[in-house]
């Protein structure tokens, strides 16, 4: 992509209404614009990040056996009357009437709709287990939308729903998602801490939140230090015993009991040196709620003996748009964003220091084509702005690598390669730079 033909409206000034780094940087780096309180447009650069996050989520859901579909944003109120949540959900739910005076709502979550889809088509235990998910916009009329996309009113969520014949099957589905979540966040370079949690308006008797440590997080985390050092579980775990071992081990290291949610109990039971009490951002939340919706809505299957059995269900959410903010909270410095390679909007920023110089521009075009051929996503700054402005914009938008090309270097057949995270710069030949970037891409 050539910057002169792109749409990257960065801001020079720090927006005064943004209280946390990720919100400020998302506005300044031209990732989002607010259109109403808690409602955002995703600008081209932000959209690329969102799509990369989606891709990782999608791949890991697929590996865990979940099947993608797409449900609408608008839902019929009648379904929610069946579960009893139309009245219970309260003011967070955006209620709409169509021209026929029928009640609709903008979905804050999809338990009812997926249960309706399930009961319409699945009749036998032989079709289980089943896990269906989608990645779709949700609306919750939060009292205090804040921190940009972290607590929006409209936000993108991945929500998966599992259906099983019995509790053991449902527990296994839950554990599978638990492991898939650890892998998903790990691929984004994030250390996610699973924490037993309240089930809130979703309901049920078991739930875990996944939290990313950050000072600006809205949740409190108490956990054992070793939890931070545990690697993500390996790919392809499928045995019940392996999966439940993962869940038991991590849950134990957070808080063994309910009473450990209480800070003083936590402090009595875990030695000070082993204790982490910090703030965290909730990037995912999984629930086991058994037959709460299947009984209320008549989602049954015929069991092996011919009896009708209400299915055991769980639901599994990831805050896809919130993750864009959480990733920045975890990856930035005074100059701007530092994207982990797996979600970066482009792999490389190619900086043409002198677009007026024919030889420099020809070399940039050549490098640009070579990078593209090697499958490397490149944003080329071909504008005629000052070098200083170009450097600060590249630092602000946080692409992992910057490849800087100018007439002085080219006289010696060199270009400069800068690593955004470490700030390290190396001078090398254009060929060596391409080889280096290709090897980085292959490793990722
Ligand atoms: N039905 C369940 C699981 S599919 C559910 O709705 N869970 S949830 O309420 O916990 O939401 C799932 C995830 O969406 C949260 O962990 C959080 O990361 C994200 N999320 C929730 N509310 C917001 C919000 N207002 N803005 C941005 N992300 C949000």
General description of the model:
By secondary structure, this protein is α+β, with helices and mostly antiparallel strands. Helix content is 35%, strand content 27%. The strands form six sheets. Strands 3, 7, 8, 9, 10, 11, 12 and 15 form an eight-stranded mixed beta sheet that branches. Strands 19-18-20-21-22 form a five-stranded mixed beta sheet, with helices on both faces. It has a three-stranded antiparallel beta sheet with strand order 4-6-5. Strand 18, helix 11 and strand 19 form a beta-alpha-beta unit. Helix 1 (21-28) crosses helix 10. The chain is globular. The structure holds 5'-O-(N-(L-cysteinyl)-sulfamoyl)adenosine.
Low-pLDDT sequence parts: none
Q: What's the overall average pLDDT, rounded?
A: 94
Please, how many helices? 14
Could you describe the largest sheet, including whether it forms a barrel?
Answer: 8 strands, mixed
Report the count of strand segments.
Answer: 22
Percent helix, as a range, is: 25-40%
Task: Give every kind of bound small molecule, once each.
Answer: 5'-O-(N-(L-cysteinyl)-sulfamoyl)adenosine
Structural class: alpha+beta
Termini Cα gap: 21 Å
Percentage beta strand:
25-35%
Question: What best-fitting shape do the alpha-carbon axes yield?
Answer: globular
